[in-house]
Amino acid sequence: MAANKNNDLQRLGVVLALGMAAGFGVRYVLSRQVARPQDQESALVDWEQARQLALRVSRWEQAPIDDRALRHAQYARMVAQSEPLIAAYMGVELPAPVERLFVVDRRDWLLVNFVSFQHLLQPIEELYGKIASSNAATTVMGTVNRKLLGGQMGLLLGYLAQRVLGQYDLSLLSPDPELRGALYFVEPNIKRVQSQLGLSDEDFRLWIALHETTHVFQFEAFPWVRPYFNELLSSFLGEVTDQFNGAGMSFSQIANRLMGGKANGGEHWMQAVLSPQQRQVFDRMQALMSVVEGYSNHVMNEIGEQLLPSFREIERRIAQRKGSRTLIEELFNRVTGMDLKLAQYQQGEAFINAVVAQRGIAFANQVWSGPEYLPTMDEIKNPERWIARVGA
């Protein structure tokens, strides 16, 4: 029984780690409608249950878009307004203007996320199906497990659907290597936060557009970044077989770590359930996403006031909002690994700020020169080590 619980927790850790490493859905969205994989009784997740629960939790019907066409024109103008300033600061031009831009509601966001997430996890589900079909006891337990994971996935994505504001879709693991990314703006959530914080309609949306357009530059202006991310995800998926073939820490060990709030050496619980091989790849994904998110925040702080006289006021109110999270929100972040993602922003931004302060933006921009120039997680925490290595 302990072994089954151990495997269940490991599988959940893998699912959440995959999502969190890439922004938990925020980075997986495929902008085109594609055929949804057929749900299987041997699948790891009950996807239909997850979809229906997520839609209920999201309360999407209570948050419509008043004028989608008007908002689309507004965001397109803001992205175009942001492009030249970002290009000048980063010292690089986009290969083509941003054309794939979508204004979506919560239901739209959920449906495309479920399609892309299900495609992402399809290799794991196929492997799990083979294992389950060879063992009657595993098949019985699998039916219970897939309902459980379906419920967890539905609650998680339904909760996120109420909170995501903007996103840049990487089209990760797309079968079309030429497919460019797309910008998504979840208008009902943006409208709600803007109203809650008493912010300007125009300024708050421009603040979001600036951040997301920076991501466009990171992944479109440097052709190696997307294939490198795809390679990391593929490697991580390849390592997942270890967790379906037995070995791992005992359930009691994992439970003790969860109850204690920390894993060995201050690790997050999600990191603790990964195998050593998975952990290596996961750390590389963490390092990349820390640079991506942290660099974007740095760019916003450097050029934000050129676009927005109210930039500092928006930042102040957003910081206040983050500082007033409820206990339930904090627990949600801890359980799902979102707190680990939030740390990406802070660590990555501190790293970029330190490098720019010591050597200037031109030196810091070397992080986009190729995979070998990316900092490790140790270097992100100790920027002087990256400076010494790259500047040698």
Q: How helix-rich are the residues, as a percent range?
A: 55-70%
Side by side, the strands of the main sheet go: 1-3-2
Largest sheet: 3 strands, mixed
The chain-level mean pLDDT equals: 77
Percent strand equals under 5%
Number of domains: 1
Structural class: mainly alpha
Explained architecture:
This protein is 68% helix and 3% strand. The protein has 392 residues and is mainly alpha-helical. The chain has one domain (2-391). Strands 1-3-2 form a three-stranded mixed β-sheet. α3 crosses α12 (276-307) and α12 crosses α15 (338-359). The chain is globular.
Give a brief description:
The chain has 392 residues and is mainly alpha-helical.
How are the elements arranged and paired?
Layout: H1 2-21, H2 47-58, H3 68-90, E1 101-104, H4 106-133, H5 136-161, E2 166-169, E3 182-186, H6 187-197, H7 201-220, H8 225-239, H9 241-244, H10 251-260, H11 269-272, H12 276-307, H13 311-323, H14 327-336, H15 338-359, H16 361-364, H17 377-381, H18 383-391
Parallel strand pairs: 1-3
Antiparallel strand pairs: 2-3
